[in-house]
Predict the 3D structure of the following.
Amino acid sequence: MKKSLSRREFIYKTSLLLSGTSLCSLARWDLTQKLANKLFPIAHAQGVSPRRVVEIGIRAGVPLMRLGTGREFSQLSQARFPNSPTDPSGYQQAANTTLYLSPDNLSLMPHAANIAITQGVAVQGGHTASFPSRDANMGLTAPIVELSNRNPTLSAVHAIEWQSGGNTVTNVTNGMKDTITVTESTLMDLFKRPYFPVTTNDLNAIMEASANLSHQQSLIIERAMKNARNMASAQSKGTSLITQDYTQLLQIDGGQVPAVLAATGGAAGLYGPVGRALAYSYRAMAANLVNSVQVNFDTGDWHGSQDLANGQGANFASQFSQRLAAFIGLLKTTPDQASATGEMLWDTTVIYITSEFTRGVDAINRDNSDGGTQGAVIIGKYVRGGYYGAFDLSGTGDGTAYGFDPQTGNPVMAAAGRNSNAQLYHTVQRLLGNNYDSNMVLNCMITG
Amino acid sequence: MSIQGNVKFKIAALSIATLSVALLFQNCGNPAAFQAIDTDRGEPNLTENVDTQTGGQPLQYATKECEFLDVESLSSILRNQFGIAAGDLPMRDPNGNVLRSQTCGTNPSQVEDCYYLRDNAAGFGKGDMSRGIPDDYSCSTPKYKLVAELFVHACDQAARNPSVVAGLFPQGINNFDNIYSLLVGRRPYSRENETLQTLVNSVSSGVAELAVCAVVASSLEAVSKL
């Protein structure tokens, strides 16, 4: 019986065949890859679909309930909590979910079926720049780090990170590569074709030889260096970046993205850079230049936001929601170049929004100092939308946030029923195809 | 019923024969998405890469992570191997002019020339403890890109200096033993020699020294701490 060709053997033989043609090197590789993807899909070869994550880290102590909440607030006679300043009659329930959106969040309504929000997670670890739900408070590797180091999309760069405002979010890497911090300028530097004192043909020859030599070296030194062949692949990608100018694929100011994402100044305020970071990230993922993205920003301190009309909350909810909605819309309409089966970026990408803790439901005229819970927003094609948990708003004083049953999603109205950071962590890990503890997954949030 | 791989290859061969004619005049300029040069050449075949080194012994895979050279080491290579006294090189804009920026140098109120190592220290992994950022010498695509760019320019400069060229290629451009010993720390194996000879034969006349120098200097082994 004849041995069946592997994907690797196919690529090797096809490359040899094409080397006899007059095609330029890039076209040869492009053709080889397209044929290989068609006949020997990467996903099939690796046993996994392409996966990406967009982690959004918000400081400091942000009430994620401002992006969507439970029905309790719609049943109040009047607004009386700083973090729910909307007239109760203004809330709208998203179809077939337990998620209620305020007028500030209505831009998210088309995507609500895939937006899960909770603020019913017990506080662990206090204030920390690593955000407990991103490492389960146990020093576990941040989901974006674990996924992007696998780089299942074979992107040029594993992960980039945007920082806006003074505070940053720290990734637990456990020795893996951390994300690469970028600005608009350095992102372009990363993907532009630099000036070289040689012709394009000579440069192509140099870079192809460089990739070949490093590959040969990796086979020699793999007993001395862990993942030597992966490093040769990283070196090869670096040289590929030199021979082409990819910056045209990253432009956002010529109508390539919805205006709200590119906007700066005016009402955009501090959310302008956030939108632009999302826009560049979308473009970079669409061209498969990066696998995953981290966008961190600082809303400012939420202490003292008692004023229902003018607190920081109103601006956060409307400005950030609009940008998030536009970003999701792009994912839904853009093919993932790494997919061999025609998947869209929406099919392959999970958005995970966290904060170091979440401010809850202190009553108006108090200091909004409640940091008694943590939470998260998880968005994706395989996420079951809804607000998970519930708020006890009885009485006239502060309210209380509670958790939910991990399997059914039903609220558990007891402090002991609050969920854990570990559960959030392993739920996201499962969605990303990372290592996870099945006993900790919040199955109620996942479809399929 | 799945198609056998060999049949797939025959289908692909026919497709290539057709497509390659159509693609002869294809514009190779603007890419639609990233495609790396694929060095995925099958499972490791020890006989292809080590003349006698492995000797059929079972592999013992390493646990040492790849560690990229720090800026001081890169600067030392520029100074000691390529005769670039400053140990650094100015960056160039797309037109080849020296890049100047307010973000380069140490005085933010002045526009200064930009230098590869000084102004990309963070990109090469140098930390900033005043901001709580530790050193990061993990090996990554951006570092490989940056170092390849640096060494093309450094080797261009080195290739214009006859004494440096004589030091790198004392037995002529077709012998790579010396440059390999200087930059990699060992002599090249036969497959590596073939790769470099192919390069010499394929580049324009007068560029061979620059090309071999840049390829060896930016190679995986040369820029890693082993």
